[in-house]
Amino acid sequence: MSTYLMLFTLVHVLISLVAIAGGFVVMYELLRSQASRGWTAFFLATTVLTSVTGFGFPVVHVTPGHVLGVLSLIALGLALYALYSRQLVGRWRTVYVVTALVAQYFNVFVLIVQSFQKVPALHALAPTQTEWPFALVQGLALVGFVAAGYLSTARFPTAGVATSGRLPA
Predict the structure, then answer these.
(1) Which residues of the chain have pLDDT under 50?
(2) CA distances from 116 to 19, 43, 108, 169 (A)
(3) Which of 64, 94, 110, 150 has the most other CB atoms within 10 Å of its CB?
């Protein structure tokens, strides 16, 4: 692997980890019926950046990662539109919550996949990622995100963007 590719991989991984951390802060805020502009913008920007940089790796054909990257960018586009253009008014509140959580889920999904590929102890448990430990972890993540999405949608205020530094009024 070239030095450039190693550096690019390191930057991509760091951006991804930072995006995931920011996403969990945003998820926590949504579950508490609040959302700060700073954390939200940080999460959305770093998640877009991790999706875009994922296309910078040399490949010879379309991979599942490319498909997930496109789906993530679609979800992020809808989240950005709902937040900044539609200001979370009406059903756009739900669109924002769902698409932001979908983008975060995609990041976590890839983190789990990469962890089972790269961490020796996890790889030993599921070398082909068809074994039950891998399926269990991915299943638990999915159930957790569906529950968070349901609770966040139910709890997140219906008002539009406020000017006070908090997204909902």
Answers:
(1) 160-165, 168-169
(2) 20, 24, 12, 42
(3) 110
